[in-house]
Design a protein that fits this description.
homodimer; alpha/beta; Rossmann fold; Dihydrodipicolinate Reductase, domain 2; six-stranded parallel β-sheet; 15 helices; elongated; homoserine dehydrogenase activity (chains A, B); NAD(P)-bd_dom_sf (chains A, B); threonine biosynthesis (chains A, B); ACT-like_dom_sf (chains A, B); oxidoreductase (chains A, B)
Chain lengths: 433, 433
């Protein structure tokens, strides 16, 4: 039986999970791949730090150069995360003739084209199933299982932290700060949750998935982004009242020959499959011209789910399947054949609008008139009765639109928000189909 | 660019869909695989029958021998279905050096070991993504995406016809016969729906999936089977009252080192992910030791979803990935390493029991006493008030148990059903976790 030698860069949560699966499932992995995996090096910054796993003597090292240039090493497993030095280490590993398996969405979303170019030039592969929705084999599903399809849309809950927080807010009726604190206490949010709650993490994953699904070049800056950190608690209450939940949705869809992408808090009907994805779970809906709607659900992060995807990639390389895939798919090609990326402005959508208005006769008529003037028709309205005390203060007016062009809605909002009866900038959220 | 020549056996719904994808997505498929697909032969019984697609002159034939022995043909696509002559044609195609792609669950569930043996001996592959849950790439997910996992359980809605009927019964409140007639009218059930509604179709798919997921030998007769054709409408009403829906669930799970399998109408909580899979959709929940719960949802059948999976397999063969997978996975090995199959008797489960009782003092106590004597504890009870008119007639008593061993429940039922107060055999259904 062949032995495949690995260098693990990083021994954090996922690295520990990978080492654990490789040890505990050794026989199972041998029967799956016909090969034996041996960890040759584990590169860490601080070898004295206590670890959640015992390693054989002599494999823990701080010398990354030695690990990635070791002629015995077949696969470098990059689990450091972030752009630098991961970008350089991946490129150098490939040039040194190693295959690379990585869970690093940031570096692939930003420098995927460069790194896949190095891989192609070196005749090596980059496995990245773990980089998107750790516990869902979505990269393989899109690149292989749905390969016969022209994919028309992707919509996903791709950030487990945001989804945990939103679930807690909806189900427990607590505010954002309290829900974030709970997520941090339970390990679903980091001490600095910025990249999760501001939508950047989901955006990176969307960029990678869209590249695969649509074969388009997707510059990160072409994706419109809004996080859940800007969300007001009151909008969750009104969403509930309307039969919806708010989810941080990452959406890419081809409309009229162009690809529009966004990450934003979105109203999802409570009985929509994505409306029922709770806590730290991720889910992705992919629609193909032949297969129709398909949905994939699983844990988006965490030690073992992500490690499971890393090891699936190791098996793919061991079997030789990854090499065949890589050669044929021309991932991150210089000139991909997919549709060009456009901004979301012309995209048809339904919208949730929350006005803060002065409650006086004719207010609804004036706002509805302006919306109508821009071709935006109203599907439903909530305006609660106000008490004597409210007179003179701002009260909320909720309008759900029928399908409208985003650009028209933005223009209409500029007009309505200039009215003297509108007391604060109107909140505008997408509504999923 | 290479050209890969195909022989299609059968040009029914799926075959027509395959031919359509190959034609309409030719460029897309070339960019996915680096190869061009050409249909060399389409074998049909009656070439004069009108078809939903125009084929090039000279490729429609009745001569199956000529097609599968043509040295130009690379892949035989078997879309005839059933055991004979499919079994023989697949074996002969493999021996003639062709790869085979098939959507035929019946022949693989029954003769998989034999046919995979022929494939191995011939150095050829059998692609069968389309054989299980047409529009869900579940074979690849289990065999590749989850390969790092020890899978502990599978639970699936694998028959779209049954699910359509059950959805109609629940949502429209109609009876079985009416729902079946509606499904037939809309093309979701065949004129003879037996194999769908009696659970055999789901059983075959479960056998194939379980073989992949657990690497066990799964004889069809080891799977307990009950269809929806035996279901009484009243049990759907009581299930609804309890917050459940009834689904035809195919379940395989490893408990205490043994693999238990069944297909049966099962109560699924309304807010359980599988409880929300409606109409003709299929879904499969797979639990792995590392990845946790994952769920895959899509259309289980129909022209284009199934054709999409057939073409995905064609791409896999063209790319060479199928060959690598096949060599490494040793599918349908002579002595698979997985757990032995046991019957379901010792499996822990929750149960729904519907007694038909004579409504008289002490009835509930006598039944509860017998259940308790077998260690079966009661989670909830429904017994509605009866009117004067009901006195003397049989009334329903519904008992939901906590987790109990199936064997104990069966024994207890034999005892309670012998009581004079029990007027008809008690209905016993599984309840999903």
């Amino acid at each position: 039986m062949r032995t495949i030698h690995l260098a693990l860069l990083g021994l954090g949560t996922v690295g520990t999970g990978v080492a654990r699966i490789l040890r505990e499932q050794a026989r199972h992995l041998e029967s799956q791949s016909g090969a034996r995996f041996a960890i040759r090096w584990v590169v860490v910054r601080d070898p004295s730090k206590p670890r959640g796993i015992e390693l054989e003597d002599g494999i823990l090292t701080t010398e990354v150069d030695r690990a990635i240039s070791d002629p015995e090493v077949d696969i470098v497993v990059e689990l450091i995360g972030g752009i630098d030095p991961a970008r350089d280490l991946i490129a150098r590993s490939l040039r040194a003739g190693k295959h690379v398996v990585t869970a690093n969405k940031a570096v692939l979303a930003k420098h995927g084209r460069e790194l896949f170019g190095v891989a192609n030039a070196s005749g090596r592969v980059i496995g990245f199933e773990a980089a998107v929705a750790g516990g869902i084999p979505i990269v393989a599903a899109v690149a292989q299982g749905l390969a016969a399809n022209r994919i028309s849309s992707l919509a996903g809950i791709l950030n487990g932290t945001s989804n945990y927080i939103l679930t807690a807010m909806h189900q427990q009726g607590i505010g954002y700060d309290e829900a974030l604190a709970e997520a941090q206490r339970l390990g679903f949010a980091e001490a600095d949750p910025t990249l999760d709650v501001d939508g950047n993490d989901a955006l990176q994953k969307l960029a990678i998935l869209s590249r695969l699904a649509f074969q388009s070049r997707v510059p990160l800056e072409a994706i419109r982004r809004q996080g859940i950190d800007t969300l007001a608690d009151v909008d969750l209450h009104f969403a509930s009242e309307l039969g919806y939940v708010i989810k941080l949705l990452a959406v890419a869809r081809e409309v009229e020959g162009k690809l529009a992408l966004r990450v934003s808090p979105t109203l999802v009907a409570r009985n929509h499959p994505l409306g029922q994805v709770h806590n730290e779970y991720n889910a992705i809906k992919v629609t193909g011209h032949a297969i129709g709607d398909t949905i994939y659900l699983g844990k988006g992060a965490g030690m073992m789910p992500t490690a499971s995807s890393v090891v699936a990639d190791l098996l793919d390389v061991a079997i030789g399947r990854a090499q065949e895939t890589f050669r044929s798919l021309k991932l991150w090609d210089e000139s991909p054949p997919g549709p060009p990326v456009s901004d979301d402005g012309s995209m048809p959508n339904r919208f949730y609008l929350r006005y803060s208005i002065r409650d006086e006769p004719g207010t609804l008529a004036r706002i509805a008139g302006i919306l109508g003037g821009h071709g935006i028709s109203i599907a439903s309205v909530i305006q609660h009765e106000t008490s004597e005390d409210d007179i003179g203060s701002a009260v909320p007016l909720i309008i759900m639109t029928h399908i409208a062009r985003e650009g028209a809605v933005r223009t209409a909002l500029r007009e309505t928000d200039a009215l003297d009866i509108v007391r604060a900038p109107t909140v505008c959220l997408h509504v999923a189909d």
